[in-house]
Design a protein that fits this description.
Blueprint (H helix, E strand, L loop, with lengths): L1 H14 L39 H15 L6 H6 L8 H9 L6 E10 L4 E10 L2 E14 L2 E4 L1 H10 L10
Antiparallel strand pairs: 1-2, 2-3, 3-4
Helix pairs in contact: 1-5
InterPro entries: Mtb12-like_C
Pfam family, one: Mtb12_C
Keywords: Signal
């Protein structure tokens, strides 16, 4: 989980750095354009939406796809279909699923909280050989191509948690 936090904080820290060498004496840049909602139809989805249009259906799909992703009986192709950037993450997915522990892991989603119309925080219990290994694991789900998928961040954090310092391309 710490690795996931570093991945989230590092880009923000870099973006906030001061490359001017002036010690931050000048005013921060001002936005050059403001969003206007005048020309946006009332039924158009908002970029600021905090949940998908149908939260109940989206939550059901997040749960199903998270549990499918961690089900040892599900084929690699099916897991790839519910993983963000699945085809690009094939090598990492094979490494994770091919590991002895990966073949014994399953998950049960406890909570889904939408942070936007296309992202959700997911709390789930991860079991190993039927015994709860992580009762309150945290991950994320993203809506990619109209399908709610396990995020790359979630997979990479789990691979790193397993002790693999170099999980592979994409992480």
């Amino acid at each position: 989980m710490a690795a996931a936090a570093v991945l989230l904080v590092a880009p923000a820290a870099v973006a906030c750095g001061d490359d001017s060498g002036g010690g931050g004496e000048s005013d921060p840049p001002k936005p050059s354009a403001e969003k206007s909602t005048q020309d946006v139809p009332s039924d158009a989805p908002s970029d600021d939406a905090t949940a998908p249009a149908d939260p109940a259906a989206a939550e059901k799909e997040v749960k199903e796809n998270f549990e499918k992703f961690f089900d040892p009986a599900v084929s690699m192709k099916e897991k790839e279909a519910v993983l963000e950037n699945g085809p690009k993450m094939r090598a990492v997915l094979k490494s994770f699923s091919g590991d002895e522990r990966g073949e014994q892991v399953s998950a049960e989603v406890n909570k889904v909280e939408f942070t936007s119309a296309t992202e959700a925080d997911v709390t789930y219990a991860l079991t190993l050989k039927g015994a709860t290994a992580l009762p309150s694991a945290s991950g994320t789900s993203v809506n990619e191509d109209d399908t709610w998928k396990v995020s790359v961040k979630t997979l990479c954090a789990l691979v790193k948690l397993s002790g693999n310092a170099s999980p592979g391309p994409g992480c």
